[in-house]
Write a structure and sequence with these properties.
Elements: H1 6-13, H2 17-36, H3 46-59, H4 66-71
Protein name: Transposase Helix-turn-helix domain-containing protein
C-alpha cells in the first residue's frame, strides 16, 4: 500500500494518509493492550486489517445504518 499515491489511496479507502496513520497509531496502542492479556497471533499485519475494514465499509455502506442518519435519510 505504500506505493499507492494519495488520490488512489483516498479512492480505495475513503480516507487520506494522515487520518489513516492516526487510526493506525490508535490501533497499535489498542493492539498492545490486547496482546498484554494474551491470545493468539494474527495472520495479517495491523495495516492490512485496517485497510480491509476501511475497504469493506467503503464498499458496503448500506450495512451501517448510522450513515443514513448522518446523511439525513433516517
Amino acid at each position: 500500500m505504500k506505493n499507492i499515491e494519495g488520490e488512489q489511496f483516498y479512492r480505495l479507502t475513503g480516507v487520506k494518509r494522515s487520518p489513516f496513520q492516526k487510526m493506525l497509531d490508535i490501533f497499535r496502542e489498542a493492539e498492545g493492550l490486547k496482546k498484554a492479556k494474551g491470545g493468539g497471533k494474527n495472520t495479517l499485519i495491523l495495516e492490512d486489517r485496517l485497510l480491509m475494514a476501511l475497504e469493506y465499509i467503503r464498499e458496503y455502506p448500506y450495512l451501517f445504518p448510522y450513515k443514513s442518519k448522518l446523511w439525513g435519510n433516517g
